[in-house]
Fold this protein.
Amino acid sequence: MAVTARLAAKFNSYYADKPVLTTMVTNAVLGGIADTVAQTITALRTRIERRRGDDLISIEIHDLDKEKPPALGELGAGRGRPPTFDFERLTRFMAFGFFMAPIQFQWFKFLSRAFPLTKKSATVPALKRVAVDQLMFAPFGLVCFFTFMTVAEGGGRKTLVRKFQDVYVPTLKANFVLWPAVQILNFRVVPIQFQIPFVSSIGIAWTAYLSLTNSSEDEKL
């Protein structure tokens, strides 16, 4: 608790001095953590699949023709190896969080002005914020995400169109499952200076999901 309090105090001091830059750096760090989680999940999945492949080979080894032994390395062919850590991908996610932060910052300021919370009326304005945020900013944010990632990866127009056709709508549906509840808590309870960091912290799991979705789609293209 003491460490958390110190971090909060530090964040408040930096935020009071340079709110946009502080939010940008915080977003970049949390985006990097999220992609690291996603790449770790991918590596664990690959290891599990590799172990299953090894078990299958050990079971079927007796079926090999003893007169024609397999060539060196043939038994290992096709077995998945844990992918090396992709630092370029990590950089792309950190860059997206960094450059998206000013837009989020202005958007949250707009919501706080358009739907102010008062002691007499707090729940209804918070619900209005959530509705506007989810119906307007969430679709826009996903457009920014997939466009930025595709361009940063060197993909062209066809790749971008294919990605939107395959993963945009399912990702938006998943967004509507998670974020309304999170944003109600965020707008209703969390102080404005912590709202974007709170979203980014909860968003570690969400960004990891986006990272896995984006990378899995890239493998198909």
In short: The CA atoms of residues 71 and 77 lie 10 Å apart. The chain has a mean pLDDT of 82.
